[in-house]
Design goal:
Helix content is about 65%, strand content about 0%. The protein is mainly alpha-helical and about 190 residues long. It has one domain (about 20-165). The radius of gyration is 18 Å and the shape is globular.
Length: about 190
């Protein structure tokens, strides 16, 4: 059916619903990734964050009906991390340093403050990249990280500006309650 023909409105609504579900999923997994960054054992925290990111990629694949393979998923996440390094050396370095500093006496506090933030940021960016890729009809097989360098920079800036905005007190902040995963069930995570 050509674009603009009758019935495309419902297709657009389906795509919008799918994109909203995917965005909520990325937000939720970013929180889980930040929690994984709190693990006090160096390198175990990085492995846990990688596991969270892989599970997020699996769930995004389901939402967009893209075939998923765990081995291919690991490879794609690793290659995207390689693409993120030039675009965001500070984030990647901070994650590594944040993890390793936990092994230094007294470094636990520094690691506990840096690792969750940068883990959540990396997961958010990876999720947004795959939403963009899958929404445009891409698959895991045709993913090319360098194609997304500018998009990665934009999403990273959005994450940190959003984090700054959310950390500022608002008149309604005192009336909201609940955990960051409130409303999420074990089947949603």
């Amino acid at each position: 059916m050509p674009e603009g023909a009758s019935g495309s409105g419902s297709t657009d609504a389906k795509h919008e619903d799918r994109n909203q579900r995917a965005s909520k999923l990325v937000d939720r997994f970013s929180l889980w990734s930040g929690a994984a960054g709190l693990i006090p054992v160096p390198l175990l925290d990085v492995a846990a964050v990688g596991g969270v990111q892989l599970q997020m990629l699996r769930r995004l694949s389901e939402i967009y009906a893209v075939p998923f393979s765990e081995n291919l998923g690991k490879s794609v996440v690793a290659s995207l991390a390689g693409a993120v390094i030039p675009a965001s050396t500070a984030t990647t370095t901070a994650m590594g340093v944040g993890s390793m500093i936990k092994s230094v006496p007294g470094g636990q506090m520094v690691g506990a403050l840096t690792m969750p933030v940068f883990s959540a940021a990396a997961t958010y960016v990876i999720g947004k990249v795959f939403i963009q890729h899958f929404a445009s009809g891409g698959t895991l097989l045709d993913f090319n990280p360098p194609d997304y360098r500018e998009f990665i920079k934009t999403q990273r800036e959005k994450f940190f500006s959003r984090s700054k905005t959310e950390s500022q007190p608002t008149p309604h902040a005192s009336t909201t309650s609940g955990s960051p995963t409130e409303g999420a069930t074990s089947s949603n995570v």
